[in-house]
Structure formats: C-alpha cells, structure tokens
Amino acid sequence: MPAGPEGLLDANASPEEVVVAYHERTKHHFHRYAASLGRMDWATQPDPFRRYPGADVVRLLLPKPGRPLPYWQLYALGAVPSAPLSLESISLFFRYALSLTAWKRFHETTWSLRANPSSGNLHPTEGYAVLPTITRLGNAPAVYHYAPKEHALERRAILDPRAWSKLCAPFPEGSFLVGLSSVHWREAWKYGERAFRYCQHDAGHALATLRIAAAALGWGLVLLDGISASAIAGLFGLTRGDDYGTAEREEPELLALVTPTLPLTSPQLPNGLTAGSIGAQWCGRANALSSEHNVEWPVIDEVAQATRRSASAPITEDFSRFPTEEALFGIPVRNGRLTAEKAILGRRSAVAMDGATTISQDAFFRTLARLMPTRDGRSMPWDAIPWRPRIHLGLFVHRVEGIPRGLYALARDPDKLATLKDVMRRAFRWQRQPSAPPGLPLYLLQEGDCGALAARVSCGQHIAGDGAFSLGMIADYRDSLTMYGAAFYRNLFWEAGMVGQVLYLEAEESGIRSTGIGCYFDDPVHEVFGITSREWQSFYHFTVGGPVEDTRLTTLPAYHFEEEQ
Ligand SMILES: Cc1cc2nc3c(=O)[nH]c(=O)nc-3n(C[C@H](O)[C@H](O)[C@H](O)COP(=O)(O)O)c2cc1C
Q1: 150 partner at 20 to 30 Å CA-CA among 18, 30, 91, 380?
Q2: pTM score > 0.85 for this model?
Q3: Is the pLDDT confidence value at 310 over 90?
C-alpha cells in the first residue's frame, strides 16, 4: 500500500517535539498546501455512519417539534428546570447534540447535515454514552453508541449494576457519562495530513453541542479531563480488536459527566477504570467504512500517539479575575428572537456571504461576550472545561454598525492582554472599543478595509471577506503544552471548536449565519497580526455574516419518520 510522505521524527523525540513537528508540517502555505491525496478518490469515500450490527438497537422516539424554550435561557444560570432522566430526555439530548437536522439534495446526490458541524461534512466524530437503568431503554446500566441516521442507541455492552453504582456513587443520582471518539480516516480520506486537526476541531464542536443539549434539559456537563485515553477506549470498547476486525478503528477523544443539576467542579472517576472492572458484556461488530484505503498518513498516527492522555489530576484554574455577566453584557440578555430548538436544529454553515449585510453593535458585542467565561465559572458552555481560555481572537471587522472597519483583538483571558500586546505588532493601537460593555476586552488594533486580506489568508475563500466579520483564533500554544503536556494540543482545538459552535448559534439568533474555516494559511495569518514568535499559532478561522442561500439545493426532513409522527 502506498504510504504518504515520511514520518515526523525519530523514535527518541518527545511527545511535545512530535506535536510541534506535526503542527509545522501541516501548515498551509501560499505556495504549498499540507500533504493530501490532491484529488477525491470517490471509490473509497468513507461511510459517515458507523454501526455495530449484532448490538441491540433502541430507537429513540423523535421529540415533538416546537419546544418553546427560548434560546437565551440556555445561557441563564438556573433558568431551565432539570428534566428527569428518561427515554424522552435522553432522546432530546442526542437530538440537540449529534442528530441529523436535514438531508440536502442536488440532482441525484443527497447528503445529511447534523446538529454538530464537520469539516468537509465528513463527520469523523462518534458519540457514546454510559447510561443507568432507564425505563424502556434498558433494565441494566449499559454502554451505548449513538447512531445518528436512525436516531437510535446501539447497546454495545451491558454492565454489572453493582459495579456501575459503585463507580457513580460520588455523583448525584441521575448522572451519566458521554464520550466522543474520532475516525481519523474519514477526514484523512479527503484532507490528508492536516486531518488530525480537523478531527479535533470537530470533537470540540461536538463537546459544545453536548454541553448545549444538556443546558436545554437543565443539566450540567463537565469534561473529565483527568481520565486517560486508554480508560476511555476501554469504557467504549474501542480496544476490542475482534469487534473491529479490518473495520476502521476509533481514537478515544474525551469523556464528560452529565449531571441533573449544575456542573460539579473537578469530578473524578477512579483511575484504573476498565471495562472488566464494571463487568461489561459486549455485543456488536463495527461496520467497515471504506472498501479499501489506497493511501495512509502515518504522521496522523504519530501525532495521535503523542497526544494520547495519561491519567492525571484534573485541571483547576482560577477565574476570579474574569468579568461578571453584568460587566460583559452591560445588561444580561433575558430575551431574544429564537427558541433553543430553532437555533440548535436550524444551525447551518453559510456557503457564501453577501458582502453587504451590516450587523448591529448589540449583536456583535453579545456574540463576543458569549465567548467569555465569567468570574463565577458558570457561563455556558465554558463551565464544561476547567482551563482558562488559551484561544484569543484576531478579528477582521468588515460591516458592524458604528464600528470602524479594521483589525481587532478579543483577549479571552483578560490577564493575557499584556502578553498579547507583546506578541503582536508593536505599531498596533490597542484602543479599547469605547462603546463595548466595560468587561468585554475588545481592542482596535488597526483601522482599514481588511476584506481582501481576510479572504487571502483564508485560502482565498471569499466568505472570510464578504461577511460582517471574520476571525483567526490565536492559540497560546507552546505555553499550554509546557504546562499541561502534549495531550493538551487536542484541548486547544476543542476550545477553538467550542468558540466556533457558540458563533454558529449566535449567528442563528442574530438572523445571519456563520461558517468554520479550517483552510487558512497559517504563517500569513501570523504576519497579519505581527506574530513572529512560534509560541503562538493560529488554530482556526471563522466567518459571520449575511448568507447567500444556494437555491439549487432541495432540503428534506432529517428523518423520514419525522413526517409520520
Ligand atoms: C473544523 C471545520 C472546518 C471547516 N472549514 C471550512 C472551510 O474551510 N470552508 C468552508 O466553506 N466551510 C468549512 N467548514 C464548514 C463545513 O463545510 C460544514 O460544517 C459542513 O459542510 C456541514 O454543514 P453544516 O455546518 O451546515 O451542518 C468547516 C467546518 C468545520 C467544523
């Protein structure tokens, strides 16, 4: 089998060195894109739907449309009463987090869209849950795989009830676990070596959709960041060679605890957790996703290996110097346009922006304020992750009422302002945006039309210049890796994906649209912001603005049985 280009580093390299080598190697440059096949091999296109034939399937009844919960209440602490854990609430949870939201058709081709977005719509992310006994779902605790096409749960393993209760004893009654894995091949098939980055972005988006879905049920959700990758793999059966055979394997990503009330701070599962220790009895065998793989990308395996987490103490960081909700928003938002359901299930990427729509300052400031954790550590979805923001925004503002066009910065950790000033171009003005709420750390760097510039550094994609604003997510990269180790490389992408998911929903609420941009020229973005230090790296781009609909496409319901209910 032909292999992609040579590997990253020799076997003596440290995991951090492997990460840095991978990141540098997978940059897009004006004169050279990161290595990929360079064409679409349609014959081996991976199936976007993993299934485990042989496992029992529990069909989740589709929640009735029209749930009136207002979108703004997702963010208002304690506003949503906690739903009891039931087949119905679990169905709603997965519907809002990972389900299909539409099918699209163009001539003879159809494809589905989901609540969670995905680079190239390739959907490498698989969802799992470990649920207690729930009436009409199962009469024993079990490990389930979520099947989005059917909106169903596949029961992968039945657990010993006593072992499970012991494991969950520290958590409130009605808590459960959810987790994510990635099938690298689904992204690598199209994007080659850069695909690992996209898998991580997608996992971050999905972590946010899980948190948001929990919020819609009045539940808390918190990442169990101290648990090892091997424990996650063991819990979800990803290490069971016989169940996969030659089918594509899944890389464990993350595990989160869902609680019936607000998130716990620093919850922990026992280290040394294995499927055996909870008495798992497995069923089902994974389907193959591609008939064959004509190319391999070994650097993805290398960076995956280097960033696999070992068990560690959970991260605890101090948020006491972050702004309050009042300082961030001026007046906290307690009304809005959409229901949560409309925003979550109606979310779509814009395929083009109109180059004309101007948004209000209120919408702009509210959107940015939603990207900030608050002092009490309770702002959703940031309450799901325990680290202070490592992703800051370099903004290209094109069309916001009353705000000069130009480059801006949002310091998502206000204590990083001095460092950002130091890292970016000396000549920047760093003038606080005077009309912004007092707690929003938004600064004008340089005035001027930057539409063409934004498009140029986003692989020439016009959507970056034709929206109301676009942005580069600038990661505090090396310092984070030094502090938390190579595994935190993934966390940086997850945080970026979470920022993106909030931008998607906020755009819906504002009556506009947004789009994640994974294709950008890394170093030219750094040049725009005058960043010469390799310690800081651009991790993701986004554009937000007035969309142009593609009227050639037909939209069909997500589930054919949707119409029958
Ligand atoms: C990590 C990531 C990177 C993306 N990169 C691009 C991009 O460079 N250009 C683009 O037009 N769309 C991009 N998208 C948007 C996807 O194409 C889109 O999410 C996918 O087609 C599914 O459509 P939906 O978001 O409407 O569900 C990206 C999305 C994600 C999550």
Answers
A1: 380
A2: yes
A3: yes
- Mean pLDDT score, 308-336: 95
Average pLDDT over residues 359-388: 96
Closest C-alpha residue for ligand 1 atom 17: 120
Q: Is the CB of 198 under 6 A from ligand 1?
A: yes
Is the CB–ligand 1 distance for residue 499 below 6 Å? no
446 to 137, 423, 426, 522, 533: CA distances (angstroms): 57, 15, 11, 20, 20
Which of these, 344, 298, 337, 362, lies nearest to 35 by C-alpha position? 298
Q: Is 117 in the pocket of ligand 1 (CB under 6 A)?
A: yes
**Percent of the chain residues past pLDDT 90, beyond the cut:** 90
Q: Sign of the CA dihedral 526, 530, 534, 539?
A: negative
What is the model's pLDDT at position 276?
A: 79
Cα dist from 78 to 84, 164, 338, 370, whole Å: 15, 29, 19, 17
**Chain centre to alpha carbon of residue 499:** 8
| Ligand 1 atom with minimal separation from the 101 CA | 27
Longest CA span, the chain = 65
Structure tokens at 305: 């290996």
Cβ(390) – ligand 1 distance below 6 Å: no
Q: Which residue has the higher pLDDT, 449 or 275?
A: 449
